[in-house]
Design a protein that fits this description.
Number of domains: 1
Strand content: 15-25%
Helix content: 40-55%
Shape: globular
Order of helices and strands: EHEHEHEHEH
CATH class: Alpha Beta
Distance between the termini: 19 Å
CATH superfamily: Response regulator
Number of helices: 5
Length: 124
Protein backbone atom coordinates (compact mmCIF):
# COMPACT_ATOMS: atom_id res chain seq x y z
CA UNK A 1 0.00 0.00 0.00
CA UNK A 2 1.41 3.39 -1.01
CA UNK A 3 2.10 5.95 1.65
CA UNK A 4 -0.21 8.96 1.78
CA UNK A 5 1.65 12.11 0.79
CA UNK A 6 1.45 15.18 3.03
CA UNK A 7 2.80 18.59 2.02
CA UNK A 8 3.71 21.01 4.82
CA UNK A 9 4.01 24.74 4.15
CA UNK A 10 5.46 26.79 7.01
CA UNK A 11 7.99 29.61 7.24
CA UNK A 12 9.37 28.38 10.60
CA UNK A 13 12.18 26.01 9.58
CA UNK A 14 12.49 24.31 13.00
CA UNK A 15 8.73 23.75 13.23
CA UNK A 16 8.70 22.46 9.66
CA UNK A 17 11.47 19.94 10.39
CA UNK A 18 9.79 18.73 13.60
CA UNK A 19 6.43 18.27 11.88
CA UNK A 20 8.12 16.47 8.96
CA UNK A 21 9.75 14.06 11.41
CA UNK A 22 6.47 13.45 13.25
CA UNK A 23 4.59 12.64 10.05
CA UNK A 24 7.42 10.56 8.62
CA UNK A 25 7.44 8.47 11.81
CA UNK A 26 3.65 8.12 11.50
CA UNK A 27 4.10 6.51 8.09
CA UNK A 28 3.42 9.40 5.72
CA UNK A 29 5.51 10.54 2.79
CA UNK A 30 6.29 14.18 3.60
CA UNK A 31 7.12 17.14 1.39
CA UNK A 32 8.18 20.19 3.38
CA UNK A 33 8.45 23.66 1.92
CA UNK A 34 8.94 27.12 3.35
CA UNK A 35 6.36 29.79 2.58
CA UNK A 36 8.55 31.57 0.04
CA UNK A 37 8.46 28.62 -2.37
CA UNK A 38 6.00 28.46 -5.29
CA UNK A 39 3.52 26.30 -3.36
CA UNK A 40 0.98 25.85 -6.18
CA UNK A 41 3.71 24.65 -8.55
CA UNK A 42 5.14 22.24 -6.00
CA UNK A 43 1.67 20.89 -5.15
CA UNK A 44 0.85 20.47 -8.84
CA UNK A 45 4.05 18.51 -9.38
CA UNK A 46 4.06 16.48 -6.14
CA UNK A 47 0.30 15.74 -5.99
CA UNK A 48 0.00 15.52 -2.19
CA UNK A 49 -3.03 13.87 -0.60
CA UNK A 50 -3.28 16.73 1.91
CA UNK A 51 -1.62 20.08 2.66
CA UNK A 52 -0.80 21.42 6.13
CA UNK A 53 -0.60 25.19 5.67
CA UNK A 54 0.62 27.90 8.03
CA UNK A 55 -1.69 30.91 7.83
CA UNK A 56 0.71 33.61 8.90
CA UNK A 57 3.82 33.84 6.75
CA UNK A 58 5.78 36.94 5.77
CA UNK A 59 5.88 36.61 1.97
CA UNK A 60 2.34 35.38 1.32
CA UNK A 61 -0.34 34.43 3.82
CA UNK A 62 -1.74 30.93 3.99
CA UNK A 63 -5.09 32.38 2.94
CA UNK A 64 -3.49 33.65 -0.29
CA UNK A 65 -1.78 30.30 -0.86
CA UNK A 66 -5.07 28.41 -0.30
CA UNK A 67 -6.87 30.71 -2.72
CA UNK A 68 -4.18 30.10 -5.36
CA UNK A 69 -4.40 26.33 -4.89
CA UNK A 70 -8.18 26.41 -5.40
CA UNK A 71 -7.77 28.23 -8.74
CA UNK A 72 -6.11 25.29 -10.51
CA UNK A 73 -7.95 22.09 -11.44
CA UNK A 74 -4.90 20.00 -10.50
CA UNK A 75 -4.76 21.31 -6.92
CA UNK A 76 -8.32 22.50 -6.22
CA UNK A 77 -9.46 19.25 -4.59
CA UNK A 78 -6.47 18.76 -2.29
CA UNK A 79 -7.73 19.06 1.30
CA UNK A 80 -6.04 21.83 3.28
CA UNK A 81 -5.62 21.96 7.05
CA UNK A 82 -4.48 25.35 8.27
CA UNK A 83 -2.19 25.91 11.24
CA UNK A 84 -1.92 29.14 13.23
CA UNK A 85 -1.33 30.60 16.63
CA UNK A 86 -2.45 34.12 15.77
CA UNK A 87 -5.96 34.51 14.39
CA UNK A 88 -9.12 34.46 16.49
CA UNK A 89 -11.67 31.71 15.95
CA UNK A 90 -14.02 34.19 14.26
CA UNK A 91 -11.32 35.40 11.86
CA UNK A 92 -10.22 31.86 11.07
CA UNK A 93 -13.77 30.65 10.42
CA UNK A 94 -14.59 33.45 7.99
CA UNK A 95 -11.33 33.24 6.08
CA UNK A 96 -11.29 29.43 6.02
CA UNK A 97 -14.74 29.33 4.42
CA UNK A 98 -13.68 31.98 1.94
CA UNK A 99 -10.52 30.05 0.97
CA UNK A 100 -11.87 26.49 1.11
CA UNK A 101 -9.76 25.36 4.07
CA UNK A 102 -11.21 22.26 5.78
CA UNK A 103 -9.92 22.71 9.31
CA UNK A 104 -7.66 24.93 11.38
CA UNK A 105 -5.31 23.66 14.08
CA UNK A 106 -4.09 26.02 16.76
CA UNK A 107 -0.35 26.17 17.42
CA UNK A 108 1.32 24.81 19.41
CA UNK A 109 0.09 21.56 17.90
CA UNK A 110 -0.57 18.31 19.70
CA UNK A 111 1.00 15.43 17.70
CA UNK A 112 -2.06 13.22 18.23
CA UNK A 113 -4.41 15.98 17.07
CA UNK A 114 -2.38 16.49 13.90
CA UNK A 115 -2.57 12.80 12.99
CA UNK A 116 -6.28 12.61 13.88
CA UNK A 117 -7.14 15.66 11.76
CA UNK A 118 -5.11 14.40 8.79
CA UNK A 119 -6.93 11.08 8.90
CA UNK A 120 -10.32 12.83 9.22
CA UNK A 121 -9.65 15.20 6.29
CA UNK A 122 -8.52 12.40 3.97
CA UNK A 123 -11.57 10.25 4.79
CA UNK A 124 -14.04 12.96 3.81
Amino acid sequence: MAKKKIMIVDDDKVFLEELQELLDNAGYEVIGTEGRAPVAEIANSARPDLILLDLRMPEKSGFEVATELKQFNETADIPIIAMTGFYTMEERSFLMNFCGIKKCLKKPLSPLDVIKEIEWAMEE
